[in-house]
Design brief:
The chain has helices at 35-44, 78-91, 93-96, 116-119, 141-145, 175-179, 185-195, 232-244, and strands spanning 2-11, 20-27, 51-57, 62-68, 73-74, 100-105, 108-115, 121-125, 130-132, 159-162, 166-171, 199-204, 214-219, 227-228, 253-257, 265-273, 279-285, 287-297. It is α+β, with helices and mostly antiparallel strands. It has two domains: 2-128 and 285-297, Diaminopimelate Epimerase, Chain A, domain 1 (Roll); 130-265, Diaminopimelate Epimerase, Chain A, domain 1. The protein has an 18-stranded mixed sheet that branches.
Amino acid sequence: MNEYNFKKIDAFATEKSDGNPAGCVLLENLNDISELEMLQIAKELKGFVSEVGYVAQLSSNEFDLRYFSSEREVDFCGHATIAIIYDMIKSNCRLTSIQTLTINTNKGKLKVDNRVDSDDSVFIMSPVPLFVDPVSDCSGLSEKLRIPNSAISNSLPISLINAGLSTLIVPIKDLDSILSIKPDLDELKEFCQKRGVDIIEVFTTDVSNKSNNFRTRVFAPTFGYIEDPATGSGNSAFGYYLIKNKMWSGGTLLIEQNGLREKFNIVKLQKQPDENNIERVWFGGGAITRIEGKYKTYL
């Protein structure tokens, strides 16, 4: 039997919403647990959390991170990163005064901006984007989303962008249409796998609260569940989409996310150039720790 420190943390939660649940397993070293155990824990927690993040602290401000869903390893998981880093800062007084942290992921070394005191948030620098052009055949997409083809806007492009995960960005005409989407997991999983897509993100400028900028929903059938209620990597890809299509002049964007008209989660997006002068999207938010204890495995 092996025993690990475990937390269940809800990222991007607000006073009106539940956020997106992530599991956190805290380790001395990522080699202290096998990949088989990582996947097994994620399988056992299916339906309880979306993904499980495994984290080890290397120094005062540097961390190793890996992520698993119930189906497979996830190269980068934004909401789990928000949940884990926010909780570590809140629970470790030695991290409170450190402004910039570094995380090592399968998508490279990324920066974390600690704004817990000033904004009750942490902001994560998303991976350098990869734009796939032209986009693979999207015929039948509206059928798989179970909406009329007329609900997909033809004034903006459908794009495939990887900012941690291969994300198909789909413009939708209005809020009612985006809220009506109710896809079948297996049908949408087959559609995504045939086209090399990890997740599908739909968006509209029609929002529930006019102080926000966009409404998004993210569907993740290749990871074993139909909808991701608040996501960092998907909305980072969306941020790069907005930059490419000149739809983001500057400032912080507030993204409503999920399929509930009023009880939406909030994901914050900002942009700034990195040390190589490449414009990078940063996603931000806070989290609420719900459960803390020990996780036991018998592999």
